[in-house]
Structures are given as C-alpha cells and as structure tokens.
C-alpha cells in the first residue's frame, strides 16, 4: 500500500509518501513541503498548493491520500487556511479517483506514538524510528505528513473491516424487513354485500269500477 499523507496549511503544506503493510517495516518514499508566500493573493496560493500536490501525485502514484481532518481552534484565520488547503488536497485526489481518508490529529498521534496527546517532537521521533531515518524530517509539517500516511496504513484494514460489518448489518436488516413484509398475512375478509336498491317503478293505475 502506498499512501500520500498531507498536513494541510497555506504557508507550509506538508507532504509525505509511505509504502508498506501493517505488521511489516514501512518505507519512506518521499517527503517535502509545498510552500506559498504569505503576502500572495489567496487564490494564487491555492493554485500553487494544487500544482504542488499534483506534482507529488504524478511522481509517486499513491493508492490512497490521507489528509488531516480540520478541527476547531481559537485562531479562526488559521482554521480557514487549513480547511482551504485540505479541500485542495481532497479535490486533487478525487479528480484522479484516488480514495481519500481523513484522520484527526489525536488519531494520528495515538497510532504513531500510542498517546493522543503526544507533542510534535514525540511524533517526529517516532516517525524517524518507524521509517528508520537518520534524522527527524524538517520542518514538523513534513513529519506530520509522514505520520498521517503511517496512521492510514495501520488503520485502513480495521476501518475496512468495520465498514464491511456495517454494510453487512444493513443488508441483513433489509433482508429481514423484506421477509417480514412478504410473510405478512393477506386479509381475506369478504366485503359486506350491498343491499339492492329499492324499486322506484310507479304502480300501474287501478281500473275504474263498473
């Protein structure tokens, strides 16, 4: 499985590609950051992010794209920029028919370090260890992107089994409902007979007496 992890951001959008399967050593295929100038117009920055992600998709051909799920923060401006960059990444993947998965920061931290409250230094250290790198990737956005890819590789089989179980349960419920409707007795009550309408024919006139 080859996964492109995307840590969305307007100024620095981390990207990292990891290949492997659960239970076996993982391999880093590539890591980097797509940068845009903070003083540039918003539309141009989004175009630059799109072009950067498209280049990574062209070069590495991932089977999945894992993007950090945007969550609420006190800095609304930062949240908006992160959400916009996240949408660009999802658009690029969807346009190519590549499945996209969203993972929250706590899910990624828990998957990589065992704690959903780990800091960036701990995440970077574990990414370095898991991918057998000489040093932690810099900046932290790049390490976070690799962590997203690792998280998806490890969580994808469990999520797939859960989705299959949910789909199977829905199918069983639909079959049971259909069987119940089919087996329901059909009413055979004969409608009450309607009395014949009374005759409205006028009686024949009586003859005159002799």
State the end-to-end distance: 119 Å
Radius of gyration: 33 Å
Whole-number mean pLDDT = 86
The biggest sheet, with number of strands, parallel, antiparallel or mixed sense and barrel status, is: 5 strands, mixed
Oligomer: single chain
**DSSP E strands, number:** 5
SSE pattern: EEEHEHEHHH
Lateral arrangement of strands in the main beta sheet: 3-2-1-4-5
Number of helices: 5
Brief rundown of the structure:
This protein has 210 residues and is of the alpha/beta class. 49% of the residues lie in helices and 15% in strands. Strand 4 (64-68), helix 2 and strand 5 form a beta-alpha-beta unit.
Strand and helix map with partners:
Elements: E1 2-7, E2 12-19, E3 27-35, H1 42-60, E4 64-68, H2 76-95, E5 100-103, H3 105-113, H4 120-130, H5 140-183
Parallel strand pairs: 1-4, 4-5
Antiparallel strand pairs: 1-2, 2-3
């Amino acid at each position: 499985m080859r996964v492109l992890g995307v840590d969305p951001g307007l100024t620095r959008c981390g990207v990292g590609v990891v290949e492997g399967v659960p239970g076996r050593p993982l391999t880093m295929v590539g890591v980097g950051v797509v940068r845009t100038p903070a003083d540039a117009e918003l539309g141009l920055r989004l175009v630059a992010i799109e072009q950067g992600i498209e280049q990574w998709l062209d070069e590495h051909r991932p089977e999945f794209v894992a993007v950090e799920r945007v969550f609420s923060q006190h800095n609304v401006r930062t949240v908006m920029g992160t959400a916009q960059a996240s949408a660009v990444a999802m658009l690029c993947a969807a346009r190519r028919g590549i499945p996209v998965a969203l993972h929250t920061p706590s899910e990624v931290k828990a998957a990589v370090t065992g704690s959903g409250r780990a800091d960036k230094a701990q995440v970077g250290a574990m990414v370095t260890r898991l991918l057998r790198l000489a040093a932690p990737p810099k900046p932290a956005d790049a390490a976070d992107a690799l962590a997203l890819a690792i998280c998806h590789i490890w969580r994808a089989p469990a999520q797939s089994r859960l989705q299959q179980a949910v789909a199977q349960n829905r199918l069983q419920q639909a079959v049971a409902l259909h069987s119940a409707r089919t087996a329901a007795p059909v009413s055979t009550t004969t409608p009450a007979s309607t009395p014949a309408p009374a005759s409205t024919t006028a009686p024949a006139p009586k003859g005159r007496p002799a």
